[in-house]
């Protein structure tokens, strides 16, 4: 026998189920009067620095059908590449930008939509800059443990080409699954990022 | 400082795999490629912070927070416990959000079709933040079991859904709490997505008679464990740790 390590095991994950909205976006599913506003609904304050952008898309299952019951959270740096988090030690992030958003996919169209700002660059573990990116976390009925992925920007070709995380993807044909298309809508950049859970062009998901 | 190092790798054999055919919805919603392993970068090691000032006084009281004409029907319970990390250290400042069916097993959701009635006084959502010792507590009614379309006669055991924010986005977790002594736990296709019986038992809250409120509410104790971090005593990275 040896001494015990006294370590605990992480609580095992369970699916968020079809009614995750009751807990996480109650106002969105008509449970009103409990919380003034759903958490994560507003990310950008009036005085926030940086380019205002919209990020939208769908989450598709292995048959190509959009999920109408998914919930997405995003987490990202501010325009200067700093996170609005007490753990951020590199500097003070923009206080007018939360960096964190939470949105359901629409019950009819399956589309999600975030109004945010374009993030700056953040260093990789060895100090090299990563390309600008947004962390995505996806839960839904049928997803047993939340899925982590990253969205990159199609108009950041140079930064994407030197991003140490994108460089880690062995199957180069899968890199485009992480890159959002850019369009203009009323003078504002709209990035479209579809997430494919399975099948042709399955999105790269990370074990982080 | 032990809050500086990278997080222990997630034990994927302890968590449910993505593809679990007995839970039919997972079949088309499970990625088939291997996950890409990534060292924690500052993007994953940071996360949003939630303060007590963001909460309302009834947020941790599901008996009162949706009351219209009186209190909801059902067995009154207190759920309490601690949030710890894998080093067995308490985690303060953790936002916990929870949701559940009413005492009859009915959810307040437009897509819910179960014939059990809505309770006009029960919304089914609540939230709280752990204190300096990682403790939390909330009051509710015990949810009922409910049937769901999977097999023709599948039922969920009574459960409360939990969403948990640690200090880093990589600790993000959603899980479910079950109740001690419920035989239906061991018949549930969603519970059985977890491969190890010992792991399932980590999700079963114990009846806690010592913390029961006499003549008022039974208590259940439910501890939650989030991923732990390495100590950084011997790390000297300059960037991104
Ligand atoms: Fe449920």
Walkthrough of the structure:
The complex is a heterodimer of chains A (208) and B (241). Helices cover 5% and strands 27% of the residues of chain A. Chain A is mostly beta strands and 208 residues long. Chain A has a single domain (41-196), classed as Aromatic compound dioxygenase (Protocatechuate 3,4-Dioxygenase, subunit A, Sandwich). In chain A, strands 1, 2, 3, 4, 5, 6, 7, 8 and 9 form a nine-stranded mixed β-sheet that branches. In chain A, helix 2 (157-161) links the parallel strand 6 (147-153) and strand 7 (179-185). The longest helix of chain A has 5 residues, at 20-24. Chain A starts with 19 loop residues before the first helix and ends with a strand. The mean pLDDT of chain A is 97. With 241 residues, chain B is mostly beta strands. Chain B has a single domain, classed as Aromatic compound dioxygenase (Protocatechuate 3,4-Dioxygenase, subunit A, Sandwich), CATH 2.60.130.10. Helix content of chain B is 4%, strand content 25%. Chain B contains two helices and twelve strands, in the order E-H-E-E-E-E-E-E-E-E-H-E-E-E. Chain B has helices at residues 42-45, 197-201; strands at 36-37, 76-85, 95-99, 125-129, 135-141, 146-148, 154-156, 159-165, 173-179, 204-207, 218-221, 224-226. Chain B is globular. At the A-B interface, helix 1, strand 5, strand 6 and strand 10 of A face strand 1, helix 1, strand 3, strand 8 and strand 9 of B. The structure holds fe (iii) ion. Fe (iii) ion binds at residues 156, 159, 161 of chain B. Chain B: Its EC number is 1.13.11.3. Chain B: InterPro entries: Intradiol_dOase_C, Intradiol_dOase_core, Intradiol_RC_Dioxygenase, PCDO_beta_N, Protocat_dOase_b.
